[in-house]
Design goal:
InterPro entries: VapC45_PIN-like (IPR041375). The protein has about 140 residues and is α/β, with parallel strands linked by helices. The protein has helices at about 20-25, 35-40, 50-60, 75-80, 95-105, 110-115, and strands spanning about 10, 30-35, 60-65, 85-90, 120-125, 130-135. It has one domain.
Length: about 140
Amino acid sequence: MSPPEQPRRFFIDRSLGRVAVPKLLREAGWDLITLAEHYGVPQDETIEDTRWIEDSAKLGWAILMKDKRIRYRQAEIDAVIGHRARCFVVTRGDLTSAAYAERFITNQQPIFAASATPGPFIFAVHADRLERLYPPHH
């Protein structure tokens, strides 16, 4: 079975930083754009989460981010649902840049496979697996 093709592009939220995580992912072969690259600096500091979720979803980019409370933020959830966004989130806030990048790279195949399917969805990215946060299993 051939590995799934990487989707066009991933969008990296500012929560993962502008430099280290994007650099490590690019070195591993990921095609991505950071919030700072897309909106420019210093505008990147003031873009609302709901806005970049909408913009990246409309452009067809899957989203990589860090947010331990994403499942409780109704405005962001509504944006994910409304714009059929595809999100992969590390729910820990205490890791190094290298550890964040490693989580995405370790889960690269399931992330690429999931991101090739239609949204909306949110997956938590754990050290060794993905966990679907939204929509919940019934």
